[in-house]
Design a protein that fits this description.
Length: 250
């Protein structure tokens, strides 16, 4: 079984993508991915990111290889109710947060309390570092990366029961303290250099890596080419499947 933690559907702002749900499903099948955890691209720039969650459930319902990952805007007071409502669909296994595309402010919203909610519900949550290198953004729409080390990981360390995925993780720059938290995982979709997959295993992070293709923003084969040539078969199996089992079933 090959899983993909980072796939999306819909339009993107900086270039045209083949983002129809059926197109994404077919892309995953072409490269041998059996199950894609998918979120709506349109939610990223929307003032109400929850608007696309019902559409997500509906559009993915006819595709066995797509599992919906609804988007939560933790800067608005209704995000917990939205989470509970989305969980009524048994296909929903986790949620995605685009922290740097919201009005979230550290002084106004307690990230530790947000993480405690997910931990108490035993629901994994993906905190997206970036969707695209901001150099490709329009000059009037530059989006800084979410502050993973100084904000997200800092507060995650205070909630040991949390299951957290760093979306588009920058493995080379992560705080080494994540090794002390058994529930922090890393999406491979934006490994900075090809060598980092090998080095992640050598540094004890192999059990935290999750395959991410970032389809349709990235070409479908990019996800594999970022790390597959460097790994042994049993290591690749961890990234494809066994680490997903740990995330979802432990």
């Amino acid at each position: 079984m090959i899983n993909d933690i980072s796939c999306f559907y819909g339009p993107w702002t900086t270039h045209p993508v083949q983002g129809d749900v059926r197109q994404v499903s077919e892309k995953l099948k072409r490269i041998g991915i059996d199950r894609g955890y998918i979120s709506p691209l349109a939610a990223v720039w929307c003032r109400n990111q929850h608007l696309y969650n019902c559409e997500l459930l509906e559009l993915t319902s006819e595709f066995e290889n797509l599992l919906p990952v609804p988007v939560l805007d933790v800067s608005v007071p209704t995000w917990q109710e939205e989470c509970i409502e989305m969980c009524k669909d048994t296909r929903v296994k986790m949620f995605r947060v685009f922290l740097n595309y919201t009005y979230w402010d550290q002084s106004m919203h307690n990230l530790k309390e947000i993480f405690k909610f997910f931990a108490e519900k035993n629901i994994p949550v993906i905190f997206q570092r970036r969707m695209e290198d901001r150099r490709y953004n329009h000059k009037l729409a530059q989006v800084q990366d979410a502050d993973i080390n100084n904000v997200v990981i800092k507060y995650a360390m205070r909630v040991p029961e949390l299951k957290l995925v760093i979306g588009a993780a920058a493995v080379a720059h992560l705080n080494s303290s994540i090794l002390d938290h058994k529930g922090i995982y890393l999406d491979t979709s934006m490994l900075e250099e090809l060598k980092w997959a090998r080095e992640a295993f050598d540094n004890g992070l192999g059990g935290r890596l999750l395959l991410g293709s970032h389809i349709p923003i990235f070409e479908e084969n990019a996800g594999f080419s970022r790390f597959l040539p460097q790994l042994a078969d049993d290591e690749a199996e961890m990234v494809f499947d066994r680490n997903f089992e740990k995330l979802l079933n432990s």
